[in-house]
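Q: What structure does this chain adopt?
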Amino acid sequence: MSRPPQSRPPGEGTASPAAEPEKRRAILHAAVRVFAEKGYHGCRIADVARAAGVAYGLVYHYFRNKDELLENVFAEQWTLFIEALAAIDAGPGTAADKIAGIFRFVFDVYKTAPAAVRVLILEVTRTPQGLRAGSTRETFARALELVAGVVRQGQARGELRAGADPTLAAATILGGLELAVSGMVVGLVPASTEAEIDRARQQAVDLVVVGLKA
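A:
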């Protein structure tokens, strides 16, 4: 599966610096589509290159092997999620508004990029690479910290129950979010239309917020 650096085709590193990030991004996005369609273990680097519309050898210019490609897919998605949590935490609104915003962000990603969500949900539990890249203890701790901060703000303003432990509440919110999306990915929660996705999101938010309200 891996390929030694010295075997890269000649001229592979001659792309202009401005074009490199775009090509790398195209490969990552193609990998998401291929992983979602064929599964991580069922696809090859050649499948990713074909989907990205690039030469087979160019994939190896950016990624040593399929494992590293998957790691980067996870890392990119987790970075986007943490950035979204930080923006919601720093933004205006009540604690309930911010919790709803967290769910809205994830459910909107499911609407616009279901393949990415499918890969994250299904492959992270099957591959050690997923646990190394992004789904680390440090990343989860950061997500937990941000959501716990939202809960603390709500408690300080009297919007949420003062007796609830913020960290446990944050873990419950994130766990409920993951399971709700997992239910949609595997077909247990209706999500074939935007209306069904919105309905699932609103019900999930209502269940979480009702349990935390003062």
